[in-house]
Amino acid sequence: MFTYQMPTRIRFGTGESSQLPDELTKLEFKRLLIVTDPGIVSTGIIDPISESLQKSGIHVETFDQVAQNPRDSDCLYGTEVFQGIHADAVLAIGGGSAMDTAKTIALLAKSGGNPSEYADGHRPYQEMAPVICVPTTAGTGSEVTRSAVITESFTHRKMTLKHEKMRPILAVLDPRLTVSVPASVTAATGVDALVHAIEGYTCTITSPISKAYGAEAMRTIIPALPIAVSDGKNLEARTKMLEGSLLAGLCFGNADVASVHCLAEALGSVYDTPHGIANAIFLPHVLRFNAQDNIALHADISRLMGYSNDAQDDDHAVEQLINGVFAFTQSLGIAKLRELPDVNERDFDKLAALAFANGSTPSNVRTITLEDYRMILSNTYHHA
C-alpha cells in the first residue's frame, strides 16, 4: 500500500520565468513578497522579474535576508515583512534556502507561532499563504516538496517542517536562470539532487512512483552534472540538471531522505557547512554501509547510474557503485571532511547524536545506530 500526492502545477522550459506575470495575474494576486538571498540579488535575476510583475499591476516587496542554512530568525522577520505589506502570496526565487524560508514564512504568516512549534509537533499546520517557487539552482527540488529545513538559531539544530499544506501551488523552472551558478555550487547542489534520488529510491517508505522518478533522476544527473560543472553556459546540460533535480524532488517528496541527509544536516547545524557539500562528502560512505545488507538493491542503483550492467553479478555491481561514486564526487572537486573549516573529531559524538535524532533516521534502508553514525563519521574523516 502507498499514497502519492502532488498538487503543485509545474511549468518547465527555457524562458518560462517570463510567464510569471500572466500566471500570477490569473491567480488574482495583488501584493507579493519575493523571498531570495543576497547572492541571487547580485546576479541581477530579481530585477527583471520584479519589474515585469510591477508592470502587470502586482505590488512587489523583496525580502533577501536568507542565509545558506536558513534560520528561524530569518523566517520570523520575513513573516513580519509579509504581514506589514499585507501580501497575498510568497514568491521564492533562489535555491533551497530561499524556497524553504518562503514556505515557512507563508505558514507562520497565516497560522502563527514559530518554526520549532511545528517541527516538534506542538502546533497544527492550518492555514498557509500560497507559495510560488522559481528555483535558480538544480539541487533541492524544494519547489515540489512538502517540507522545509530550518535551523534553530539558539540550539543550531536542523528542524524539518513537513506537511502537505507546505507544497507550493506553482513551480516555474527556467534553465536559463541557472547558467550563472558557479561551478562549485553547481557541483554541490547537483550531488544533493543525486542523493535525493538515491535516498528516495531506497528508503523504507518509498513507493513504485517514487522509485520511477528516482530512477530517471539518477539516469539524468550522472551524465549531465560533470558537463554543467565544466561548462556552465551549456544550456542543454543545465536543462538536464534542472530536470534531474525536479525528478529527484518528485521522488523523495512523497517518500523521505535517509542517513546521508541526517549526517549532512548535523554537519550543517554545527559548522554551517553548505548542504550539498555535506551530502556529497557522506554519500559514498553511507552507500557502503547500507549496501552490506541490501546488495541487490544497490546493484540496481549501480546499473541505473551506469557503473555496471546486467552482465555483472550483484556483488561486483555494488563494488563498482561505491568506487564510481567516490570517483564522481572527487572529479567534481568536492572537499574531504577533514579539509572543511573547523571540523574536529572532538565533535563527532555530538554530530552522531544529532544525526541519530534526525526524523529521517528510521527511513534509512539499513537499521543504523548511534555507534554506526559515529563509525561513518570517523571513516569519512580518515578516508584517503
Looking at CATH, the homologous superfamily of the largest domain is Dehydroquinate synthase-like - alpha domain
How many separate structural domains?
Answer: 2
Number of strands: 8
CATH topology of the largest domain: Dehydroquinate synthase-like, alpha domain
Radius of gyration: 20 Å
Brief description of this entry?
The protein has 384 residues and is an alpha/beta fold. The chain is 52% helix and 10% strand. It is built from 15 helices and 8 strands.
Task: Characterise this structure.
By secondary structure, the protein is of the alpha/beta class. It has 2 domains: 170 residues, 3-Layer(aba) Sandwich (Rossmann fold), CATH 3.40.50; 200 residues, Up-down Bundle (Dehydroquinate synthase-like, alpha domain), CATH 1.20.1090.10. It contains 15 helices and 8 strands. The strands form 2 sheets. A 6-stranded parallel beta sheet has the order 1-8-5-4-2-3, sandwiched between helices. It has a two-stranded antiparallel sheet with strand order 6-7. Strand 6 and strand 7 form a beta hairpin. Helix 14 crosses helix 15. It is globular and about 60 Å long. The model has no long low-confidence stretch (mean pLDDT 96).
Tell me the layout of helices and strands.
Elements: E1 9-12, H1 20-26, E2 31-35, H2 38-43, H3 46-55, E3 59-63, H4 72-84, E4 89-94, H5 96-111, H6 115-119, E5 131-135, E6 147-151, E7 158-162, E8 170-173, H7 183-202, H8 208-230, H9 235-252, H10 259-271, H11 275-291, H12 295-304, H13 314-331, H14 348-357, H15 370-382
Parallel strand pairs: 1-8, 2-3, 2-4, 4-5, 5-8
Antiparallel strand pairs: 6-7
Helix pairs in contact: 4-5, 7-8, 7-9, 7-11, 8-9, 10-11, 10-14, 11-13, 11-15, 12-13, 14-15
